[in-house]
Amino acid sequence: MGWHGEPWHVGVLSLHSKEEEGGGGGRKLRWVGTEILRTLEFRLSILKKKEEEEEGSLDRLARSLKHRSLVYDSDVHNGSADHTGSFEKDEKNRGGSLMLAEILKRLKRYGISGILSYGLLNTVYYLTAFLLVWFYVAPAPGKMGYMAAVERFLKIMAMVWAGSQVTKLVRAGGALALAPVVDRGLSWFTAKFKFESQGKAFMVVVGFCFGLAVVLFLIVTLLWA
Fold first, then answer.
1. Structure pTM?
2. What is the pLDDT at residue 184?
3. Of 165, 96, 101, whose CA–CA distance to 129 is shortest?
């Protein structure tokens, strides 16, 4: 605003008109008008610079928000995928456990014949897996000493046991399929050797399987000692 509340350009025009009226006074007024114009231009340049800085800040803020949004979306997507994979894995494990429980429940209906069927398959699995790991999967030279041979035996048995946990469902299904055959075989064995009951015949068969496994493990370990 100029003097007396008038706009600045009106004040400048009045200054030029007064310049025409007097000599030195006119030059002075012209200088004052020039300074006013320079001041206005300087203030306008400052305002323009501030505007540009604010626009740059807004742009940086928008880019930052966009980057954070992308990172958040990526984390949510990955978390959702991990959660889905974990849920599917849990469902699969739960389904396998239910199936195993159902097979064992049906196996119990055969009584000691079902237990013997499962025990026979376990014996076959442990003997076969032990020999395969000892001779083919992790072979070792002989004459290693008693302590080293015992340590090797324990490590291999740990591997075989871990494998048994993976194949438990398969062995249970096989035992259920063989249970009728084992039941007839146990009845024949009881009558053939004139046992008083199938329970006593069952104990003889279990003892034979256990003794066979112990003898085989002992012989192989001692041969490599």
1. 0.59
2. 95
3. 165
